[in-house]
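Researcher: Go.
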Amino acid sequence: MTNDYLIASLRLAVPLAFAALGGMYSERSGVLNIALEGMLLTGAFTGAVATFYTNNPWLGMLAALIAGALVGLLHAFLCVSLYVNQLVSGLAINLVAAGLTAFLARLVFHGASTQRLPGIEPIIIPGLANLPILGVLFQQDIFVYLLLALVVASLYILFHTSFGLTLRAVGEYPQAAATAGVSVKKVRYLAVMLSGILASLGGAYLALVQIRFFTEGMSAGKGFIAIAALIFGRWHPIGSTLACLLFGATEALQLRIQALGANIPYQFLVMLPYAIALFALLGLAGKSKPPQSLGIPDTPKR
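Model: Structure:
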């Protein structure tokens, strides 16, 4: 029973963690990324469509990466080149992604609503999979292993490489970075596109592992919970991932309470993860400091 709950918590946390990691890169560069919800949904839809037509989930995963990069490119173009308000740009992308994927899904999957996609199966690592508690980490699919690698890589890149130093400098003091010869626009373009790629991986996980099909609005607010996890984790790869695990565990808990038939209105249980996210943010009021230039549309002319 405990292992089942841990596995459920982990799987529910994976799309949140991918989106939160993506948001971390974007916001560390100074670009507010409210569009994580739309990026998740785009990745899920593109991955599902490519898999549906090719019968190959790996091509679906690749298609999701490309789509995420393009959405990130759009967000970067609007915010960095056209100086559009970053909040407005993100909300617009979310609305367009929700409407466009819903419309196209009815065209693509019409008459195939009960057909499951060929998903990506778990990779069980012999020996390690039998460890108590930690063994659940070694019975997962490629997305989970990739996520763990990305958390470690992000920690190293952000705090132990020149690119990480440049990224943080652009997010904190863009004028000083520009004076030192850094192309602020290029760094922000790269960071926001990377954000789209990572968030789309979370969407592909939803479509190819969790549900194995695409349903309208299947991201279900996960992009916004990822933003809350990002703030709760203080824009740090490990802190944000742990926050996603907390929210995943909360969602798994409410699903189990519903399954037990507790005499509680299910609406209260459904809103539990969002309530936890709200209380977490209230607890951090005044304590979590974002990058200094986050959300400021004006950038150095460079």
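Model: The chain has twelve helices and no strands.
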